[in-house]
Write a structure and sequence with these properties.
Blueprint lengths: L49 H4 L7 H9 L8 H4 L4 E7 L11 H11 L5 E7 L7 E6 L2 H5 L15 H6 L4 E6 L1 H10 L7 E6 L8 H11 L6 E6 L4 E6 L4 E5 L5 H4 L20 E4 L8 E5 L2 H10 L3 E3 L4 E2 L6 H7 L11 H14 L2 E2 H22 L4 H4 L2 H6 L4 H8 L11
Parallel strand pairs: 2-4, 4-5, 5-9
Antiparallel strand pairs: 1-10, 1-11, 2-3, 6-7, 7-8, 9-10, 12-13
Helix pairs in contact: 4-10
């Protein structure tokens, strides 16, 4: 049975957007906080530390940044991308054939083991018989890391391996994970008694449950059962690679949002760390040109990680173009629309898609645009569903990054962007 055949096309998402839940079909999560991304920490002996470590209980970005960097974010791109020492456009000279991109993440994990820099790598594999059902993997060999190549855009409790790390006496660990996982890991880092921790961050937004991913593919693709990889690309299209090597393209504007309403977990809609700012090294694609990966070295450890892989990389140029601010007033206005509204007519959608590709933001400006849209959308979601949580879950830099739109936000929503009791 193929992945996409698991969820019938007529079956809808596991929850509606107005229903506050994570995995409505998973009894294992009963008793967790109302916001939960199932990072895995609560499955371990560290679960008593959850109130002090969970990003959805109390966001500690500011204090963790102080510990990692000795400071918080400065004005400019750090407000969007997080603190970083350098950023690159890069790709593997010899791409991994099963990787989502060129295989930089898995190659780095494998090299760390090959060179004896770490004893194990925590990463994400796929459940047997599936391509996309995410499962945590504690890899002790380079081959075990390389087997996990390929993106699994589903929630995965990677931190549930922490107890196993301790039981096996592992003292030097590499961790590959998403922002919510990294936040919790950094919060309990001092309790792990590790001699070395290297954190490779994956930019993350809007992960879904496995059944909902299958439902999404059924709604989007002409051949959902043959999809091998898919990604929301910089040309405002979803690219879906199939088993035969062909790539299917779907314009963002063509998504049937009336059918996808409610597909994203409440936790992902309350997250403000798309670029995984607390990692040592972030490897994604969003700020690079098509075909390249975007890398941010954030710490001294991050620079060492990049240097380890550098001999196997082709380096390119980071570019930018367009003006993201032109479209933001329209995006803010659209946030007032009922969720799940039907698409515009076909010819209107074709025109919008053409204009996005010709005049839309590109390169680093595209990354800024996407991050700002996610911050605005998620800030509004928290205010509408979890308003009393805002002081605890919305980090300081969100208001600073969105400050250029403060007047438009006030006019649109008749309330200030920045809470009145928060210092600018």
């Amino acid at each position: 049975m193929t992945d996409a055949a698991i969820v019938p096309m007529e079956e809808g998402p596991s929850k509606g957007l107005d229903q506050i839940s994570l995995l409505s079909r998973d009894d294992r999560l009963k008793g967790r906080p109302r916001l939960c991304s199932d990072c895995g920490l609560c499955d371990t002996s560290f679960s008593p530390l959850m109130p002090q470590s969970c990003v959805f209980v109390r966001n500690q970005t500011a204090s963790i940044e102080q510990r990692l960097h000795g400071r918080n974010r400065r004005a400019g791109d750090e407000l969007h991308f997080g603190i970083h020492r350098a950023q690159y456009a890069a790709r593997m000279r010899r791409p991994h054939p099963k990787a989502q991109w060129t295989g930089m993440v898995t190659a780095l994990g494998a090299r760390l083991l090959e060179r004896g820099r770490v004893d194990a790598v925590v990463t994400t594999g796929a459940a047997p018989g599936t391509r996309f059902q995410a499962v945590p993997v504690l890899a002790r060999t380079p081959q075990a890391v390389l087997k996990t190549a390929g993106n699994k855009p589903c929630l995965s409790p990677n931190l549930n391996l922490i107890d196993l790390v301790r039981e096996q006496g592992i003292k030097r660990l590499a961790f590959i994970g998403t922002g919510c996982q990294v936040h919790a890991l950094r919060a309990v880092e001092s309790e792990l008694a590790l001699d070395r921790l290297a954190v490779i961050g994956i930019p993350c937004s809007d992960n879904v449950t496995y059944p909902d991913l299958m439902y999404f593919l059924n709604q989007i693709s002409r051949s959902p059962e043959t999809v091998v990889h898919h990604e929301f690309m910089q040309d405002f299209r979803l690219w879906l690679r199939h088993e035969n090597g062909k790539v299917e393209h779907v314009n963002f504007i063509d998504f049937p949002m009336d059918k996808l309403h409610g597909i994203f977990p409440s936790a992902c809609l309350s997250c403000f760390d798309y670029p995984n700012g607390l990692s040592d090294l972030t490897i994604g694609f969003m700020g690079a040109e098509l075909g390249w990966q975007w890398v941010l070295a954030r710490t001294e450890t991050g620079e060492e990680l990049f240097d380890l892989l550098r001999p196997e990389l082709e380096l390119g140029e980071l570019t930018e173009g367009g003006d993201r601010t032109r479209g933001m007033p329209r995006f803010i206005e659209r946030l007032t629309h009922p969720p799940g509204e039907k698409r515009p007519p076909f010819l209107v959608r074709r025109l919008i898609a053409m204009l996005q590709r010709r005049r839309g933001a590109r390169g680093l400006e595209f990354a800024r645009a996407v991050i700002e849209m996610k911050l605005l959308r998620n800030l509004n979601y928290v205010r509408s569903k979890f308003e009393r949580f805002e002081p605890r879950v919305v980090p300081y830099h969100v208001y600073e990054a969105l400050d250029p739109y403060a007047d438009i936000y006030r006019e649109t929503f008749e309330r200030p962007l920045r809470p009145e009791n928060q210092d600018p």
